[in-house]
Fold these 4 entries.
Entry 1:
Amino acid sequence: MVKTKELSKDTRNKIVDLHQAGKTESAIGKQLGVKKSTVGAIIRKWKTYKTTDNLHRSGAPHKISPRGVKMITRTVSKNPRTTRGDLVNNLQRAGTKVTKATISNTLRRQGLKCCSARRVPLLKPVHVRARLKFAREHLDDPEEDWENVIWSDETKVELFGQNSTRRVWRRENAELHPKNTIPTVKHGGGNLMLWGCFSAKGPGRLIRVKGRMNGAMYREILTENLLPSAKALKMKRGWVVQQDNDPKHTARATKEWLRKKHIKVLEWPSQSPDLNPRENLWRELKVRVAQRQPQNITALGEICMEEWEKIPATVCENLVKTYRKRLTSVIANKGYITKY
């Protein structure tokens, strides 16, 4: 059956006005170009409800009973990985036959929708407890304390790593035009390792790590880059360095080097990238680099350095200024991974 176009509110009101003026349904229909049956229906609704507005339409009854809705909602709340097929089978055993689409629509009305599961670090109970302990101990630290921290880390940048997320505007059947495609190569086309640091005052040094980093190389990087960065960033006396728990960072020789240099180290809970604003700054850099579309490793290295220099100090400042929110989120999520 073809769905007819609904009459406007003005047209419905004119029908009532003409009816009150004494005109017949046929005459009204001819004058306004509306079917006689439609005119009659509008007049009857007006006589019954004293309005020409659309009334509430109940629609078809739901195929799943309220009890069935509670059952499938409770099931997915306990086990979010339950499939629609499992729910269809559960209802069928209870005497209700529905489709997967009905399951989706029903759960959507309950505020639930099917999404891709996020990939997050594996947290063991010991990690959860350490994260909660860190968040609670530092929750009331003044903002000035976080401004005196230098955040340091390493990251891998792939030549074609970020381009896979790019979208294009194109016409139909133009999906293979060179402008609308993303060239790919095996293994990402190569990559390079970077070490960098920053504080609330802005980016510190960024260097390319050549070869496999070991403890000796890491201590050399700290000597040649961390200390000059602290000086350039004008860190206050007693500044603190943050680093993760990589074996190179926690090696006895590295701890001894830090002790001799009188550098304090922020005690860090393992498996906590969401607590490290350094990750956000790496993401900022990688997006900027991807927009430049480097075509080889040499260009990739040069562009990384250029874009690092362009990152405004305000970006770093904002990452540190909002640090308390990260701690609050960890506590609210009972130690598990947060949106950061």
Entry 2:
Amino acid sequence: MKASKYEELRLHYKIWFTDKDDNGILGDGKYKILKAIDETGSLMSACEKLGITYRRTWNDLKSIEKRLGFPLLEKTRGGTDGGSSTLTPEGRKLIRAFDNFHENMDEIMQHHFKVLKHQLLSDE
């Protein structure tokens, strides 16, 4: 790879948390779902917004709740006005903490990626 090609490199990475048995609990994808639920006030609307299936998302969220040991959603059944889903206080705390963690890691990763590119581009 020529040095000029190193300048074109871009960084992409994923972050996720697992339980002690390495079962996935929360990563970028599930975080986006929880964030969309918080923004739209509805699991169905969040699924539509993200282009994902309701049933699988519902099952994924139930699995996360089981592994964490607390509910993420407060749900009200539909009626003439439709149902709603809001994050529990613990659910909001989780997405806030994940968001802060991700922002901090983004800064660190970008810094070290610049160091890597500098090393690749240097004449050493």
Entry 3:
Amino acid sequence: MKLQDVAIVGVGVTPQVKRSEKNSLQVALDAAKLALADAGLSHTDLDGIAARWPGPGGTELAPGSADWSTMLGVPLSWIGDSYPQGIPALVDAAGAILTGQATTILITGGQAGVLGGGKVASYTRPGNEFVAPFGAFTAAHFALVAQRHLARFPYARQGMAEIAATIRNVGSTNPDAVMYGRGPYTAEDVLAAPPVVDPFTLLDLCLASEGGAAVVVTTLERARDLRHPPVVLLGAGMEWLRQQYVDPARYEEVWSIGAKAARKAFGQAGLGPSDVDVAQLYDVNSLEVARQFEALGFCGEGEGTDFALATGIGPDGKLPTCTDGGLLSFSHIGWGAPTLKLVEAVHQVRGTAGARQIPGAEVALAAGAGSAAQYYNLALLGRAR
């Protein structure tokens, strides 16, 4: 078996909201049920899971003594909880399937009941040595990178605003997006929005919202007998420079993070950037979208905003990007946000995105993390050949 013999067969997303009445465990389970139903499978078909551990140990989802096998009602052959979301979880699941550790794996997660009170989301201020004492938060880390870039390429600021407006306007027309009906926005609206941390305004930055997301992964052989056309893993790559949000990011180290991962993923798939039909980039802020175009090989350094504007990243453009409205407008659910990128990529490739479907989408790029996080991952998904 090879990487392309692994397929995503089911996806599920709970309602995405600013604040949920449920807790993180409940929305993760709700998303899991939706993904299994989408695949036409039962919980009894699962023998593996990638998720934050519900009880003591691992990457704890919520305090308690619950465990996934008890809640699912099935014994599990494989559990992945080192980075159990998005592309890393998909790569781990593929490895488990290819080595015979499991046959059908659930990836699920999200957050609920953790936001509110007018405070910065707790996960944006981890208790690290140079974060907690000085009040740094995620957007400030990214602002350090953005300030350095704009010192070199000041013309990029207008392009950042155009990118933010484009993605937010996609979300404003998506009934499932948190920001549905908010908009349309112009670049001038973005620039004039309340400042958060220089150079970012409120409309340059992603949401903090609540909900769950899940995908089901199995072999291509089994996938061919299930409900939807299988979406296979064509290639994937990851880079880890250092632990996120401990040391401030240095522009010279992090601006191109993702370049090596992209070369690996495209090499595995036998494709290049020009073969990508839709890009589900990790749009934590407007400049990160432009940065990823540069790092992933779509254009050169300093050309990201111009590339986005010239190519067109809206639904009618040559490279539709964040086609559900992205983290900027659809939702950002903490640990579950990377999985949202896989869900939308799958919908586009198999043609089940409804009104937001991009005609002829056969290859989708899904990504996670970014420059100030100091790690990056991406996957290429496509139709089974």
Entry 4:
Amino acid sequence: MSDLWAALCLVAVLEGLVLFAFPDAWKRMAEQMQAMQSRQLRIGGALLLAAGLAALYLVRRVG
């Protein structure tokens, strides 16, 4: 369970780092996402989810 909390904390750190380092780029990206259809966002989210799960599987299997 502590691994889950550590992973969630790492996500928060990475998201905060992006917002801190590139706030203008993040705002432009958010504006572009507003213009996208929900279907496109769902497909992108599903692909990112699958890639994350595959990477997690590989990390856990190798390490």
